[in-house]
Each structure stands twice: as C-alpha cells, then as structure tokens.
C-alpha cells in the first residue's frame, strides 16, 4: 500500500511537472522610452505571473523575464504588436530544473559513498551547515561559528569568523545568498570558506598576512528560509524564489526582498511597496529579522572596514550608490579598486565583468545592503553579480561552480589586500 502511494505521488508529480513544463525566459531589448513604459507596466502587473529576472529598465540593457507557458503566446504577441524586440534566452526552464535536480541527486549519492564534500555541487541548507561544522572542527585555531540570531521561520543564522586573535580587529564582511535563488553565490561562498582556511593552513599569500591584521566574517546563507524554500521542489515557483518567507499584509503573497529592506533611503526608487512584487521592500526599514540580525551584528562589532555581498547573475562588480545616480564621495577610489579587482578576476578564465555604481550599471535600488554599509562608514563596500550573463541565469550548471568561485576569489583577494594596505 505504501509503495502504491509512493508511485501515485510520483505520477502526480510528473503530471504536475508536465503542467508547468515549457516556461521560457525572454530577453527583451527596449529601444525607446515607450518600450520602457510598457515594460514597467508589465512589471507592475503582479498578477500576470511574469517573473522578472532583471530589474531596472533602460535602452542600454536587456530585460530578462520568465514567462509561464500559459502566457507565452500572449506575451510574445503583445511584444510583437508593440514592436519590442526579444529573443528566447532559455527555451525550457523546466528542462534545466530537472537536469539540476538529477545532478544534485547524483552528486549527493557520490558524497554519501565517498563521505566527501563536493565543491562542484549545489547543496541544501542542512548540508551547508554540516560543512561549516566540519570546517570549524578541522580549523579550530582559525575559524569559529557565530550564531547572529534566528530567521522568521526560526532557523539559526551563522557567520564563520576567521581570526588569528585580538579583540574586534578591523574586519571584512562577505555574505552570500540574500536572494534565495542565486545558488551560485552560496556555492561560491562555501568554496571560499574552504579556500581561506586552506590558504591560511598552507601559509599561502596573502591570506596569512591579511589575517595577521584583520578578521574575516563570511555568511554563506544570508536568507536561510528562502534558501530552504528553493529546495522544496523542482517547480519554478519554489526554485526561483527570491525573497524571505515572512507573512505580509497580503495573505496571498509572502516574503520581502531582503536587499530592499535595509535602512538606506528605504522606500526610494527601485523597490516596490506591493507585497506580491519580487522587489517588495517590506513595511518598514529593517522590518525583516534577517536584515536586522545582520545589521545589529555589524553595528555592535563596530569595526568593519569592508562589506561585500555576492549575488547573481550578470557579471558585475558594483559600488554605491544604488538609490541615486549621484557619485559616492569615494567613487574614484572605489571605481579604481573594483576595476583592479575585476582585472584580477579576469586573469583566471577571461571572464569579463562590468564595473560601476549599482544605479548606473544595473538598476536603481533603494534599501540595499551595500548603500547601508557605505552610509555607516564602511568605505570599501562592493556587490558582485556572479556568472553568467544569461545563458543559464539563476540555473548555472554545477560544473561552473569551482571556476566561478576561483575567479571570484581573485577579485576578493585583491580587495582584501587593498583594504589591509589602506587603513582608515
Ligand atoms: Zn541578488
């Protein structure tokens, strides 16, 4: 009977997958202000079921939208009628999801058999948390795990602290995964944690000299509830979840965009007040416990000199501001540091990154963490959008994890060394 139910559940799942099979991601190139207005209107219509993979509209940059299978015909027709050019960027999202899930299952099986940890695989929250414990246990002279509070759904939020001693030394902050579906950022952070530990142990420059003066704090999963949700099913709705999982004023729509909820021009441009929107900013600045936990931790520490946050996708290395096109007071230096860091990144595989302020190279965004950090005196604040430029978007194949992490490390290493050499 039990077996029968399992088979039935499987059939139901297959049937369900068939129903949603066929979503596409369209890349749309606005060519005029009229086109931009039309796209903005589409984005505001949260009932349309369109999932904007990129935000902000300009004739300089394409907009990527996942379109449900049921609306494909209508949306393509609509774009054609309005003479808005588009291409199909991902032909069948479901195919990529199924491939990703099969790959994860295969990798998990190999890990079980070898009792090893595969850095070239995506992992769920529990596995990442176990990895952190193992890493701390084998590098206890360097790493400790700090619990900075709990999430909305009561999961612990952990930060790895890399320190060779001293009280509240100048410190570098790196977080990943504040947007749940950006899995390459979590996977990169996992690899980075191991790399920092190994480089220190093997006395490989520049890690030991950086850690002789500064501490590094690395948060691999900044949005644990959202991340758990993305692992629930291969359904697009779950895997492509971006926000937190808190209740909102609209019972039909959950979650806040945690990177629009910081106390930095909260409620300004590039954030929505609609709880159903992907970039919903929340009811008030730092209303979200996850953001509050991180902000409180950083403020109570009081000696962070650099704040870096990992996102995907687009291959960008950005600095403040996001809320305004005005130059940050340190813009020249930040631009120079980011340019050198992106050069270092490029030296590994030739991956090309664009460099600029958030506002200018991606989108206006108020309530973003990098602006918050910068406004609180953390000068060296940067946001990364990791691979790719759109071929797979948020569904980057696992065989690109290690090369992505390694090239990102080149950039981070450059920035950390620079911060170390330029005390303030
Ligand atoms: Zn993001």
TrEMBL record:
It holds the Pfam family Peptidase_M14. GO terms for cellular component: extracellular space. Residues 1-16 form the signal peptide. Gene3D superfamilies: Metallocarboxypeptidase-like, Zn peptidases. CDD domains: M14_CPA. GO terms for molecular function: metallocarboxypeptidase activity; zinc ion binding. Its cofactor is Zn(2+). Keywords: Carboxypeptidase, Disulfide bond, Hydrolase, Metal-binding, Metalloprotease, Protease, Secreted, Signal, Zinc. The active site is at residue 385. GO terms for biological process: proteolysis. InterPro entries: CARBOXYPEPT_ZN_1 (IPR057246), CARBOXYPEPT_ZN_2 (IPR057247), CPA_M14_CPD (IPR034248), M14A-like_propep (IPR036990), M14A_act_pep (IPR003146), Peptidase_M14 (IPR000834). It comes from the Eukaryota. It is found in: Secreted. Belongs to the peptidase M14 family. This is Peptidase M14 domain-containing protein.
